[in-house]
């Protein structure tokens, strides 16, 4: 219908899902297909408060759709990075994500928002986490890691790509 015109949804992910919000926000369910977790190669490092984290970078839409879903653990020195082509308000949800996470919303290397200790979603209706401020990256770490390293809004996160 006409109400759907003008709605932009850049990512609908089955797991820890970025959802781009516009003036009228609708969450559209991704097609029902069986998807299992993924382990991507380490292709970047993040340096935060002197600590180095190995990052899987979800580059393709399919990799971003799967994200960290179905994973049962995430090492203290590991994370997943989502990179957006242009800055935009972004929201994530935890559908099919089995482990709690810290989500760090970044713009030009600076922390804009932190969603700490985000629990897995075990219902059909999942809350979203994010910011209405334009961001260009989201970094996911094991739950509790941002508190452990003392990360705060405004801090810098250095990302170094291997390729």
From TrEMBL:
Keywords: Signal. Residues 1-21 form the signal peptide. It holds the Pfam family DUF192. InterPro entries: DUF192 (IPR003795), Saro_0823-like_sf (IPR038695). This is ACR family protein. The lineage of its organism: Bacteria, Bacillati, Cyanobacteriota, Cyanophyceae, Chroococcidiopsidales.
């Amino acid at each position: 219908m006409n109400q759907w015109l003008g709605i932009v949804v850049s990512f609908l992910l089955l797991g820890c899902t970025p959802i781009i919000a516009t003036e009228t926000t609708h969450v559209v369910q991704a097609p029902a297909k069986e998807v299992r977790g993924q382990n991507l190669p380490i292709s970047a490092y993040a340096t935060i408060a002197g600590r180095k984290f190995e990052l899987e970078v979800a580059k393709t839409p399919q990799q971003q759709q799967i994200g960290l879903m179905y994973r049962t653990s995430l090492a203290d020195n590991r994370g997943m990075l989502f990179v957006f082509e242009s800055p935009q308000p972004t929201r994530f949800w935890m559908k099919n994500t089995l482990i709690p996470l810290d989500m760090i919303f970044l713009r030009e290397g600076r922390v804009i928002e932190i969603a700490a200790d985000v629990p897995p979603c075990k219902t059909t209706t999942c809350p979203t986490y994010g910011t209405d401020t334009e961001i260009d990256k989201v970094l996911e770490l094991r739950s509790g890691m941002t508190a452990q390293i003392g990360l705060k809004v405004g801090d810098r996160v250095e990302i170094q790509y291997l390729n």
